[in-house]
Write a structure and sequence with these properties.
CATH architecture of the largest domain in chain A: 3-Layer(aba) Sandwich
CATH superfamily of the largest domain in chain A: NADH-ubiquinone oxidoreductase 51kDa subunit
Shape of chain B: elongated
CATH architecture of the largest domain in chain B: 3-Layer(aba) Sandwich
Bound molecules: flavin mononucleotide, iron/sulfur cluster, FE2/S2 (inorganic) cluster
CATH topology of the largest domain in chain A: Rossmann fold
CATH topology of the largest domain in chain B: Rossmann fold
Helix content of chain A: 40-55%
Largest sheet of chain A: 5 strands, mixed
Distance between the termini of chain B: 60 Å
Radius of gyration of chain A: 21 Å
Order of helices and strands of chain A: HHHHEHHEHEHEEHHEEHEEHHEHHHHH
Number of domains of chain B: 4
Structural class of chain B: alpha/beta
Number of strands of chain A: 10
Helix content of chain B: 10-25%
Oligomer: heterodimer
Number of helices of chain B: 11
Largest sheet of chain B: 5 strands, mixed
Largest interface: A-B, 37 and 35 residues
């Protein structure tokens, strides 16, 4: 079941060092890449149907085209802020195959016409950031990067300061510019992101790491995996009450239960499966009954009322308390809201405080109503999708596990 | 081009910002973070409207209008949205209106009365933040009353570019603050008090002195320098005391000061509460003095055109050599509003061709027997030995001149002045009568 495209080198010892990387195929895509015109490369990415792996699943080719077409000095920014509970895939690439990422960055920069790239690494990822920096230094020595390279690209790592919201692309760029990590208002028409007012591409680590395979083997080779609308593979993660937690790459469209059983080794200690949060903490929870239908692709999970997100599944067994699980998540949202928008700033804290009353089994019917109404106010009324995500999380728990909340009402 | 707002057709320009169209047409639209001079930030989410064809409510401060756009600000849905956001805005607010200086001109109060009017649903404890923090420059901060609209931080970042204020913390612990060891000390600092839509930033100079609903207001022009910033003079008269001016507030003029004032100008209202109250001379004595020869007059360059005109003909009729000298302070001006010329109407002096040659003035002064000072600030520093001096004063003077006449100041005597860019502006007298007569009336009496 496991497919190896991005994770091909993960199990090779010292895969992060230049020698091992070179003898295992790294940087081999650059020769065919530089033989092509940048637009040809963008067309290949479009044809491959590659979708962003940072949670939104936007078509990568279209984003590249917009940046390529926009006048100005172009930047490629790699989003390695990975801070969502349940999501821990990008760190694998950073530490186990950093040269794949560097290779992808060089190809991407060439395709969109940029010479400068920043990798925005989550503050807590010091260890992975150090490995990545060593690899970047090696790539400079070998003239893959810098003045001596066939196509000049410079890469700079920027370490975040530990805010989840800095993973949101416009907040990330604000932070990179030296400002507070506050998301920007969304544009009214298709536009690139902007770094110091210059057109900028922001892609997730895994998105960029998927690029070398596609450009070397062609769009069809990528489309051989996955479904029509969700082509290719993804580094799906699994954690929680599971026998073998970890990151395993499979193609899109596989059955979730099969993944849990065959790849994750089933629910820990033979317990019964109660629910799964399918794609990182920000995706609405799905109860066991709905999982029989669930497949790991964007369309299926959306139709089930949740989302694929980052593909990081959180498994909960029959003993899990849904009230405590929601409390745990709301504490996270309360702590991480950037605090700009009124509905989010006040809504995340209030809903977290209301949950305390449920956990203490001292809630009232009004508390439940308030929780619903706060969730409604947080949905669709803010600058970024952080608050709507929190709202979706609350709604998911209340929809599928209402009875557990009613039990906490005095 | 036309758009429809609440079933009413509104003329506007393609691409204009919806909130600006609404404000221009006096259509109620609640807003905290949008401010005409600071622009939109989109954080408060109070300005939400329903737009036909859009699934979700949109913020008016980030909506650009196009032909036939249909907007609703009063539908049941949008009223509920606004109410629910307002409830969140007020959730952790202390609601200490009874002791808050903003009460009466507070947007939170206004909006609650307009479309809030719900009972509190809060069953948990409110978030605690800092109270009565002295930021410097007369500005006091109450973090609990703050709605985090970032008007104040955008003012110091984008307008004065001094960057004293910022937001500290995330989520519900986000609050306005000042960097450790710094002070809010730019010459325009007090504008943040006026920008703040709630009682989070208050002026140490004004707070706890008056309830705003007891104040009357008159349109005027700041006389602090030649910029001529537009102001509201706020004042009242209480049962046991005379009329008192309590503050100047900026009055919008997009050609001059937008909605801002410098702190010096803002606080210059205090002079107007110090009118001359000593014993004044008789007009008859002045008439006698006018029979002398070698007479010279010096007029303040901050007098109105009407006053200057009256003085000019008075001097002509009585063979008095008339001068005016500008109030120049090279350390006062800056790149923005403040000008080195601290006279309110020096352009008026020039227009009326009043002599402002300083060399000529000095030599004439030496010869003069009689010196008539029309409220010019410099005269007290000049050598007036052996001269007979007449003083027309708007505010209190210490020296004992031979004749002293108290006259109404610019808050009590309307007129016109011309600013540094040649813009003519009228200012008006407050509704209470001054205890001192108008200068033109005294001169009239002498005719
Ligand atoms: C609150 C929030 C947090 C996010 N965090 C991350 C993150 O840590 N890493 C990431 O790649 N994308 C994150 N995203 C998505 C980014 O905004 C952006 O869509 C993504 O980096 C684009 O890359 P992609 O198209 O390659 O997925 C986040 C979005 C939101 C709203
Ligand atoms: S929704 Fe929340 S996280 Fe996003 S900009 Fe608004 S306050 Fe910040
Ligand atoms: S800011 Fe002041 S007046 Fe306004 S609601 Fe709060 S306490 Fe009351
Ligand atoms: S102090 Fe006032 S102006 Fe500043 S952010 Fe708070 S409410 Fe807005
Ligand atoms: S005024 Fe529009 S969001 Fe604040």
């Amino acid at each position: 079941m496991i497919t190896r495209i991005v994770s091909n080198n993960f199990e090779i010892p010292d895969s992060h060092t230049m020698d091992v990387a070179l003898s295992n195929g790294r940087y081999s895509s650059l020769k065919p890449v530089f033989e092509k015109e940048p637009q040809e490369l963008i067309d290949i990415i479009k044809a491959s149907g590659l979708r962003g792996k940072g949670g939104g699943g936007a078509a990568a080719g279209n984003k590249w085209q917009i940046v390529s077409d926009w006048e100005g000095t172009k930047y490629v920014v790699v989003n390695a802020d990975e801070s969502e509970p349940g999501t821990f895939k990008d760190r694998r690439i950073l530490s186990l195959d950093p040269h794949l990422l560097i290779e992808g960055i060089i190809a991407t920069c060439y395709a969109v016409g940029s010479n400068t790239s920043y990798i925005y690494v989550r503050g807590e990822y010091e260890e992975f950031s150090d490995i990545l920096q060593d690899s970047i230094d090696e790539a400079y020595e070998k003239n893959f990067l810098g003045v001596g390279a066939q196509y000049r690209v410079d890469i700079t790592i920027h370490r975040g300061a530990g805010a989840y919201i800095c993973g949101e692309k416009s907040a990330l760029l604000e932070s990179l510019e030296g400002n507070r990590g506050h998301p920007r208002l969304k544009p009214h028409s298709p536009k690139p992101e902007f770094y110091f007012n210059e057109p900028t591409l922001v892609n997730n680590v895994e998105t960029i790491a998927s690029v070398p395979f596609i450009l070397e083997n062609g769009a069809e080779a990528y489309r051989a995996y996955g479904t029509e609308k969700s082509p290719g593979t993804m580094l799906f993660g699994i954690s929680g009450n599971i026998t073998k937690p970890g990151i395993y790459e499979v193609e899109f469209g596989v059955s979730m239960l099969e993944y849990i059983e065959k790849v994750g080794g089933g629910v820990k200690n033979g317990k019964k499966l109660k629910a799964v949060i399918p794609g990182g903490a920000s995706t609405p929870i799905l109860p066991f009954e709905m999982l029989k239908e669930a497949r790991l692709d964007y369309e299926n999970l959306r139709d089930l009322g949740s989302a694929l997100g980052t593909g990081g599944m959180i498994v909960m067994d029959e003993d899990a308390s849904m009230v405590k699980a929601l409390k745990n998540l709301l504490r996270f949202y309360h702590h991480e809201s950037c605090g700009q928008c009124t509905p989010c700033r006040e809504g995340t804290s209030w809903s977290d405080k209301i949950l305390d009353r449920f956990v203490a089994k001292r809630a009232t019917m009004e508390d439940l109503e308030m929780l619903r109404s706060v969730s409604k106010t947080m949905n669709g009324k803010t600058i970024c999708v952080f608050a709507p995500a929190a709202s979706g999380v609350i709604d998911g728990f209340l929809k599928h596990f209402e009875s557990e909340f009613l039990e906490c009402i005095v | 081009m036309k758009i429809i707002i609440d079933d009413r057709a509104v003329e506007c320009e393609e691409g204009a910002l919806l909130i600006e169209v609404m404000l221009k047409n006096s259509i109620e639209i609640p807003h905290f973070c949008y401010q005409e001079d600071l622009g939109a930030d989109g954080n408060c989410r109070m300005c939400m409207v329903d737009i036909k064809g859009m699934k979700r409510p949109q913020i008016a401060c980030n909506t650009f209008v196009s032909e036939n756009l249909e907007v609703s600000t009063i539908s049941e849905n949008i009223t509920e949205v606004k109410r629910s956001i307002l409830e969140l805005e007020l959730l952790n607010h202390p609601v200490d209106c009874a002791i808050c200086d903003q009460a009466g001109e507070c947007k939170l109060q206004d909006y609650y009365m307009d479309f809030g009017l719900y009972d509190s649903h809060l069953t948990t404890a409110k978030t605690k933040k800092g109270k009565h923090i002295d930021l410097g420059s007369n500005v006091m901060l109450d973090q609990e009353r703050c709605v985090l609209c970032t008007r104040c931080t955008r003012f110091t970042s984008n307008i004065t570019k001094t960057g004293e204020l910022g937001i500290i913390g995330r989520g519900d612990s986000a609050r306005v603050g000042i960097a450790p060891g710094r002070e809010l000390n730019n010459p325009y600092a007090m504008n943040v008090v006026e920008l703040c839509p709630v009682g989070a930033l208050t002026s140490k100079d004004f707070r706890f002195k008056q309830r705003v609903w007891f104040l009357d207001s008159t349109k005027s022009i700041c006389h602090g320098c030649s910029r001529g910033c537009n102001i509201h003079v706020d004042y009242n008269e209480t049962k046991y005391s005379d009329e008192k001016i309590h503050r100047f507030r900026a009055r919008r003029n997009n050609k001059i000061n937008q909605s801002f004032l410098c702190d010096y100008g803002r606080l210059s209202y205090t002079e107007l509460n110090e009118s001359f109250n000593g014993e004044v001379s008789h007009v008859k004595d002045l008439a006698d003095l006018l029979k002398e020869d070698k007479k010279l007059a010096l007029v303040s360059p901050s007098m109105s055109l009407q006053q200057l005109q009256a003085i000019k003909s008075f001097c002509k009729n009585n063979a008095i050599e008339l001068f005016s000298l500008a109030y120049i302070d090279d350390s006062f001006g800056d790149e923005w509003l403040r000008t080195n010329d601290m006279s309110a109407n020096f352009a008026g002096v020039k227009e009326l061709e009043i002599n402002y040659d300083e060399g000529k003035f000095n030599s004439s002064l030496q010869d003069a027997h009689v010196v008539i000072n029309f409220d010019h600030k410099y005269l007290k520093n000049m050598d007036l030995n052996n001269k007979r001096v007449v003083h027309f004063a708007t505010s209190h003077v210490d020296s004992d001149y031979e004749l002293i006449f108290a006259i109404a100041d610019f808050a009590h005597d309307s007129g016109t002045i011309i600013n540094c860019d040649g813009i003519r502006q009228d200012f008006y007298a407050t509704k209470y009568e001054s205890s001192n007569p108008r200068l033109v009336d005294i001169l009239e009496e002498l005719r």
